Amino acid sequence: MQGGGFLLGENVKVLQQLFSPSVLHALDLIGIFVFAISGALLAVRKNFDVFGMAVLAEVTGLGGGLFRDLVIGAVPPAAFTDLGYFVTPLLATALVFFLHPHVERIQAAVNVFDAAGLGLFCVVGTTKAYDYGLGLTASACLGLATAVGGGVLRDVLANEVPSLLRWDRDLYAVPAMAGAAMVALCLRYDALNAMTSSIAAVTAFVLRLLAMRYHWRAPRAWHRRSTVMEE
Amino acid sequence: MQGGGFLLGENVKVLQQLFSPSVLHALDLIGIFVFAISGALLAVRKNFDVFGMAVLAEVTGLGGGLFRDLVIGAVPPAAFTDLGYFVTPLLATALVFFLHPHVERIQAAVNVFDAAGLGLFCVVGTTKAYDYGLGLTASACLGLATAVGGGVLRDVLANEVPSLLRWDRDLYAVPAMAGAAMVALCLRYDALNAMTSSIAAVTAFVLRLLAMRYHWRAPRAWHRRSTVMEE
Amino acid sequence: MQGGGFLLGENVKVLQQLFSPSVLHALDLIGIFVFAISGALLAVRKNFDVFGMAVLAEVTGLGGGLFRDLVIGAVPPAAFTDLGYFVTPLLATALVFFLHPHVERIQAAVNVFDAAGLGLFCVVGTTKAYDYGLGLTASACLGLATAVGGGVLRDVLANEVPSLLRWDRDLYAVPAMAGAAMVALCLRYDALNAMTSSIAAVTAFVLRLLAMRYHWRAPRAWHRRSTVMEE
């Protein structure tokens, strides 16, 4: 999710006053970095070369925010106006390139950071969309898309079924939905501030951690097992 | 295809005067609903969970119109400004979730509605693109993209070869092309009204029904069988 | 890459004065044509029908420029405002449809033209992005995306791993990066003219030819072979 120091509009300004732009920007970059790590690691598993790693890292780190900015008409998107957003995935690529066995070994830590990115991006994505005049539901949807869009693009480019859609993966969208919905509710009742947006981000973060810890999964369609598998 | 009550511009206004916005909006929602059904059904076949079903339903129902709106610069796209457009795919998801064996059994009926959505979307998509200042050919192309774009996105996300591209599927793009071309011709000769646009939509609809009934297929490249299969 | 006669802004105007719009437009169309050939040939290999061929040809020829225009806010994109851009991929489709065994036989020639398109598109893409106000790094990135984006979309639609990402393919992105970086450097030092932009395009072109001739490849991640293959 891009946009820390570059966001316009009242609510983001509120966020900026309470968090300070540099803190928000640093959080942004951390989120992009951990998402980019997941992209670069998938590239290694798919046996791509170093440029494929960089492309997947950029797409994973910046894709969600890029989609959001195109939808709300914020062009050129923040991904293309802030050099830091562009360089961060390259650092992630370099790290994975030289150290990927170690990065895989600390996959648990990467997952924790990824959950933090998820929580942060759904909050800032929802807020930015609302600032650009979208309704509450649409803003929450775009917040969700900001948080999960990069991972979907990553999997599509790597020619995999997006892990977001698979029933055998721990819940990923639901924590982001919860965070985005909490922000939308706060916006609805004019209660968005540093405290409430932090609570929303932390809620999404903790829900994701719990989902990984206890392997929470979503149900598949009713009677799924009793029907034929493939058309 | 989105946009009934939210479309700007003269020609769409003509459509609205003749059809009444509420009728157009209802037709829009029906089209989105049946497209979303096809997305949710594919998600069931691919063994996705309920959130994967909702994502595929939203993408299939709204993707074509979203692409069109981004291209013509109509941001935020109608998909994000009308709550009904967002909720309709969720209803389709719920229906498929609980009743999918029955929905599969009435696949023939779903196909008929899908053909109706195809006819409707190619007409409204072409008209909206023209209203935003595109040329006649470009408008017809965008009308086609509006009608088939959601299905292509659905297949890409599900990691399948888009059925639009496969030679062993009944004609799908050609009926939409015919409808879009008829609308473009009417626009060219200033003859677009409720009658002619209905004829265009019905033509696309009937052509698609005939293609399914008689398994019309498009030719593959010349000498296809005599050449090596894979590089 | 689209945009010859339709580009706005100072630098492109400089290019136009030095090259004349009609020369630039012709180069554009040649680039689109050869890219479209590669799309139509992939469609034949994937056993798609003639409409699938046309869709892949259009996407491959126009996709990179379409992405660039959406990002810089140049809507409607040049791909939808110039009939020639739309018709050119159809001509490529017709050629491949009737003559594809011969086209495959002259694959070497197609590769040379494709390399020429790569060189041209990275230069014009970078220049157009800069004209729309992007920074130098972002402009070079968009120039690269313009040059390689169509091929990535082609592979995604055909449900293949993008050849851009695969380590067992000859370098493709690096020549385009070199060309885009040279243009960005020229822009930085106010030295962009017909001579320097030609040198940049030719450099990318020659690098790509050398990469194919000597099978230059990019490294994979450190220790790649010593780790487990798939998750």
Automatic annotation (TrEMBL), chains A, B, C:
Taxonomic superkingdom: Bacteria
Compartment(s) where it occurs, according to its Swiss-Prot or TrEMBL record: Cell membrane
Database matches in Pfam families: Gly_transporter (PF03458)
Signal peptide as annotated in the record: none
Residues in Glycine transporter domain copies: 26-100, 112-186
Keyword field contains Cell membrane: yes
Membrane spanning residue stretches: 23-43, 50-67, 79-99, 132-152, 197-216
Presence of keyword Acyltransferase: no
Keywords tagged on the record: Cell membrane, Membrane, Transmembrane, Transmembrane helix
Protein family according to the UniProt entry: Belongs to the UPF0126 family.
Protein name stated in the entry: Trimeric intracellular cation channel family protein
